[in-house]
Amino acid sequence: MCTGGCARCLGTTLIPLAVLCTLANILLFFPGGKVVENNVHITDEVWYFGGILGSGVLMIFPALVFLGLKNNDCCGCCGNESCGKRFAMFSSIIFAAVGLLGAGYCFILSAVALNKGPKCNTGTEWTYPFHDGNYLSDHTLWDMCRSPENIVPWNLTLFSLLLVMSGIQAVLCSIQVVNGLFGTLCGDCKCCGCCGGDGTV
User: What is residue 30's DSSP assignment?
Assistant: First the structure.
């Protein structure tokens, strides 16, 4: 597959992942699927917007750049080998790095949130009743959270989804870094002979 076609495939995959990460982060603002009376009762990591900013907004830009590479004009700088497709592929490496940082941010936040557990009402106060992820292997501890209802499986499911999806995004952006490097050094296979030239651009 040509480097431009590969980039477009990656971009097509990143967009739905970015949308899903954004939705997952938004749902975390409604513990147990309900509106909380006080915002301080929401788990702290939710307010860092890992899914909205990291795997959402910061991922949209690289995705759009990757999608545009397929239709990039190889002859945009006719006669100048430093421009055209090679420059476009080089710029995609920079955007892939931005996406990698965003995905890493969301991944780390999600991992911390899963290890820390949700903030909930234990019957006496709103606190974090779990320590070092002990609730992940011992479901009997979930009863320590009196409210919001089903807060533990709610946070566990959504943060796990964010963890997995941001991990996939990081892998895809890493692939584009390698793909972009090949495109920068070797050009794109569909640029052969453009502008009357015989080789790649």
Answer: S
Neighbours of 143 (CB within 10 A): 10
Burial of 59 (0-12, 13-18, 19+ CB in 10 A): buried
* Identity of residue 31: P
The rounded distance, in Å, linking the Cα atoms of 165 and 63 is 15
H-run or E-run covering 180 = helix 151-186
pLDDT tier at 188, thresholds 50, 70, 90: low
What is the C-alpha separation between 85 and 90, in angstroms, rounded? Answer: 9
- Is residue 18 pLDDT above 60, yes or no? yes
Specify burial of residue 25 (Cβ count, 10 A radius: 0-12, 13-18, 19+): buried
Q: End-to-end alpha-carbon separation of the chain, Å? A: 17
Count CA within 13 A, CB hemisphere, residue 91: 18
Confidence band, pLDDT 50/70/90 cuts, at residue 17: very high
Q: Give the pTM.
A: 0.85
**Peptide bond preceding 129: is omega within 30 degrees of 0, i.e. cis?**
no
pLDDT recorded at residue 84: 64
Amino acid identity of residue 198, one-letter, is: D
Give the tens place of pLDDT for each residue, 128-170: 999 999 999 999 999 999 999 999 999 999 999 999 999 999 9
Q: Assess contact for 20 and 75: CB atoms under 8 A.
A: no
Give the C-alpha separation, 29 to 54, whole Å.
16
